[in-house]
Design a protein that fits this description.
This is Peptidase M16 C-terminal domain-containing protein. With 388 residues, the chain is an alpha+beta fold. The chain has 11 helices and 18 strands.
């Protein structure tokens, strides 16, 4: 099966002023031979065309010599290709005026495919020469046979935003200067980054996004954030437990070439996975496969009973620590600088005994380890927290 992706620049408002109002990518499907054409609003006056083919190993490497010949024939600096095991990725970055000719050349020389599309009403369209006027009416509404990208790939219940980050994501990224490289990745943060989809559960929020670049190897970052933190509570479960679940999930999803787990320096209460894909459209399939499993995964990682117990314990810790500090300060003021040992130690012993008993009961029966500000909760840790 071959898939043809094509990205049109909609920046030229003189040619098509309504195009500036589009908020979503769109997709055309060709069912008879597997060709799919995608129209994706781009901030650049460049069209990127990628053709991905899933074929057997032997055929894949037989085609490689043909690609070398094609590259010499095209003599185009924006043309590149990659052959890896059973997948061929072709990519062309060119001016909009060149895209039709180059796409035709690719199909004629590599795919030898029919470029007409016939919808259910027996109306035929030429995918190669399809213009924007054939896809959209004057009110920026899609014409048949184009289907809504959101309905095709993500379902009606998915939340999609391609205009920028939502408030929750911005809280994570607000400390990162524009253009700074993410840790251990080549992805740079810019305001133009797009959220592909977000899905919130009672416990975990999954946010996926990719940059505006349509390079041969695009990448995708996934944030797995626990709702219990809410940016105010630095209490979380063992990262290794989450990592084991999520790694197993990622390994089972087709289309993910590689991934690695990273942590964000400004927000370490969740896991961040850097997932490598070949094209932004493929990240949508990957994102859908992951987010569909998030509710089940989140319930396995953090049962609601544990979350409620966590918050009670943590709120008690914070409240008690605040009371101790206030009492120590008040006692110190009354004694004109003398040590507040009697009252402070008395209060500390009572609260420490209660908290340690509750934590011990909970951790032994519910979960092997809990992390409080990066430390495993134990009697010794709690004692050091209060005494220090």
């Amino acid at each position: 099966m071959f898939k043809v992706f094509r990205s049109f620049s909609l920046k030229n408002k003189f040619l098509y002023p309504e195009a500036l109002e589009f908020k979503y990518p769109w997709s055309l499907e060709k069912l008879n031979n597997g060709i799919e054409l995608s129209i994706d609003p781009s901030p650049h006056d460049i069209s990127a065309i990628s053709i991905l083919s899933d074929i057997d190993f032997q055929t894949c490497h037989q085609v490689e010599s043909s690609l070398k010949t094609l590259k010499k024939k095209l003599k185009h600096p924006g043309f590149s290709y990659k052959v890896s095991w059973d997948t061929i990725t072709l990519n062309i970055e060119c001016m909009k005026s060149e895209s039709d000719m180059l796409l035709k050349t690719l199909i004629e020389n590599i795919l030898k495919a029919d470029t007409t599309f016939t919808d259910k009403n027996s109306e035929s369209y030429d995918l190669i020469n399809l213009s924007l006027d054939q896809c959209f009416d004057r009110n920026s509404q899609l014409k048949k046979p184009v289907k809504h990208f959101k309905d095709i790939l993500q379902g009606k219940n998915m939340k999609v935003s391609c205009q920028g980050f939502d408030d929750k994501t911005l809280k994570i990224l607000e400390t990162i200067p524009e253009g700074e490289v993410f840790p251990y990745t080549t992805l740079k943060y810019t305001p133009a980054m797009q959220i592909i989809e977000t899905q919130a559960d009672d416990v975990i929020t999954c946010i996926s996004y990719h940059g505006p670049s349509l390079k041969t190897e695009d990448s995708l970052l996934f944030f797995f954030l626990s709702e219990l933190f809410n940016y105010d509570y630095p209490l979380c479960l063992d990262h290794s437990k989450q990592y084991n679940y999520l790694s197993s999930l990622l390994s089972s999803i087709p289309g993910i070439f590689s991934y690695k787990c990273i942590y964000h320096p400004s927000h370490d209460s969740g896991l961040i996975f850097h997932i490598f894909n070949t094209h932004p459209l493929s990240t949508t399939f990957t994102g859908s496969a992951i987010t569909k499993s998030m509710k089940r995964i989140s319930r396995e990682i953090i049962p609601q009973e544990i979350v409620r117990t966590q918050m009670k314990i943590f709120n008690t810790l914070i409240k008690t620590q605040s009371q101790i500090e206030m009492c120590k300060k008040r006692n110190q003021d009354l004694r004109q600088g003398t040590s507040p040992k009697e009252f402070g130690d008395f209060l500390l012993n009572i609260t420490e005994e209660f908290i340690c008993r509750k934590v011990s009961e909970w951790t032994s029966s519910k979960f092997p380890s809990v992390i409080l500000q990066g430390k495993v909760i134990s009697e010794g840790v709690i004692e050091r927290m209060f005494t220090n």
